[in-house]
């Protein structure tokens, strides 16, 4: 089965799982955990550089999924994206919290060195693809993407750091996302003849 069909089948399974979860089915939560926890933990560990804190974030996100499963709208995105957005948001909240010291600076080298605890078969080929896609961005696009996604800065903070208006930052982020999506979709694994 090609990668596109496999992703579509997983999205359908995830949507059904969320419907079961909204109905109070605890087994559905276990299914979601088994499917997505390794990737979520890898993202949280990369952002926080602290395994224990990453595990706390993972727990918090699954508690939220249990409580808010009925709020999930498949028309707005995949379950995987819904979960990962929550992981990223909670990690950024922790990084910005005054009680947390920033002992480790995040940089591209650090992110490349850290691997998820287990390899997610849906993403094992995409890490290099994402790196290559980021390299294909213009320098202006790449810097705003790195500051926004790897360092968690707001558009206003990025604008202040770069000396450009927040609207310019938003425009660069939008064009970078469009370019990244085009590159990644054109080179999706399993799409080669």
Q: CATH homologous superfamily of the largest domain? A: RNA polymerase sigma factor, region 2, helix turn helix motif
The class by helix and strand makeup works out as mainly alpha
Element order, helices and strands? Answer: HHHHHHHHH
Q: What ranges have pLDDT less than 50 throughout 5 or more consecutive residues?
A: 101-117
- Tally of discrete structural domains: 2
Can you tell me the overall shape?
globular
- Number of E-type strands: 0
**Helical proportion, percent range:** over 70%
Task: Kindly provide the radius of gyration, computed on alpha-carbon positions and rounded to a whole number of angstroms.
Answer: 18 Å
| CATH topology call of the largest domain | Rna Polymerase Sigma Factor, Chain: A
Describe the main β-sheet briefly. Answer: none
Any idea of the CATH class of the largest domain? Mainly Alpha
Distance between the termini: 13 Å
Number of helices, counting only DSSP H or I runs of 4 residues or more:
9
| CATH architecture annotation of the largest domain | Orthogonal Bundle
Query: Average pLDDT across residues?
Result: 77
How much strand?
A: under 5%
């Amino acid at each position: 089965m090609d990668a596109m069909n496999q992703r579509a089948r997983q999205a359908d399974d995830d949507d059904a799982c969320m419907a079961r979860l909204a109905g109070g089915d605890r087994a559905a939560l276990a299914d979601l955990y088994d499917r997505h926890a390794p990737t979520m933990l890898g993202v949280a560990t990369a952002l926080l550089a602290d395994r224990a804190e990453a595990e706390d974030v993972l727990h918090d996100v699954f508690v939220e999924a249990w409580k808010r499963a009925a709020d999930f709208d498949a028309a707005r995105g995949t379950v995987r994206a819904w979960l990962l957005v929550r992981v990223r948001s909670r990690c950024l909240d922790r990084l910005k919290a005054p009680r947390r010291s920033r002992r480790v600076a995040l940089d591209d080298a650090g992110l490349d060195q850290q691997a998820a605890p287990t390899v997610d078969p849906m993403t094992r080929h995409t890490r290099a693809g994402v790196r290559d896609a980021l390299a294909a961005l213009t320098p202006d696009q790449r810097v705003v993407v790195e500051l926004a996604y790897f360092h968690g800065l707001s558009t206003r903070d990025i604008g202040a750091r770069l000396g450009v208006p927040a609207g310019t930052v938003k425009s660069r982020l939008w064009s970078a996302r469009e370019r990244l999506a085009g590159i990644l979709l054109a080179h999706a694994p399993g799409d080669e003849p």
